[in-house]
Amino acid sequence: MARRFDVITFDCYGTLVDWEAGISGACLTAAAVSGASPQPEAVLRSYAHHESEVESEGYRSYRDILMQVSRRVAADTGWAIPPGGEAFLPESLPAWPPFPDTNEALLRLSVSGYRLGILSNVDDDLLVATCRQFSVPFDFVITAQQVRSYKPGHAHFTAARERVGSGRWLHAAQSFFHDVVPASELGIPVAWINRKREAALAGDVAPTVELQNLLRLVDWLEH
Question: Is 124 a residue of the active site?
């Protein structure tokens, strides 16, 4: 069967990396220092709300966003960050773990000859640290720091189009809001990696394909 795509790009945190485990683990550890024990679900709900909120306020480094969001999460979930302690969340990011299927899927795609890229809402240095956990190098990465914008803005995708060139391109991502919607708006085929079987956002946007994990993505590409 003829290959349908030449280039596969990924969102990183939530798609390749288990950001929920990383964020909740870091916050629970920090909260325990002040004697608090918030519920992980509450931490993640608060984080998801405030991250989009802070990103919409205008571009700033993702390191700063993580520190701003951590303060708001702590206030929401009943614990205090000591003065000067806000850096715990960005400092934890390099240790956020890849999903169990990530490295096998990346290796299979690389061996099959696909060009691989990352489009991520982080700073360059944070992504470099995360990429040390992956089984293969990426051909290119586009970060928020490079384009001075955060998804669901279109800047990541516009910059990636220049790197992809005439290649046939598929974007793969977990976030419907941050990735599926803007990719669809730009006519870019997109695989929704719906690990938690979430409902799609209301509207006319639909992914090219919906899959439960990255190994299913590789299987789909091979058939």
Answer: no
